[in-house]
Amino acid sequence: MVEGKDDTRQIHRAVEADTLETRGSALSEETLHQIEMLNARRGVIVFTDPDYSGEKIRKTIAREVPGVKHAFLERRDAVPHGPGSLGVEHATPAAIRTALQNVYTEVPEAPAVISREMLLAAGLIAGKTARKRRERLGDLLGIGYVNGKHLLERLRLFRVTREAFNRAVHQLDEEDQ
Question: I need a surface site. Which of 26, 31, 71, 78 has the fewest CB within 10 A?
């Protein structure tokens, strides 16, 4: 699942894959039904832009079609060379392949293994650098950027282990030195 034809073109430069385009963030019932059918028959990977609209599409699809997989492009890999918004269409084939190698499946019933206190201690939900650290954490874990309010939920949904979380936080701390 991608947002538009430019995303499809860029995906095809990186890998051999079929794509279905949402053609915007207002997903129709017909598009959601197609996604549901595709997911049942062969699986779906949601690969949207790392921006507000892309996240809105991702959340809608995940809510309406449980079990879809998610690929996240790092924000720095989606930056246009000229004026424009963030997007899959600006990513290199290597960045797209990396994102597709780190696909996640949401698992809503997964128990929480990371606490709010751990997020606070890691400087991920409070302080001047929290947003920057969350952005980098999303890159390190391959789960995309999420605001502080939804970070704990994203970590739980994608079953990020305590060990993986601690490794990523340790790398964040080393990068900050």
Answer: 26
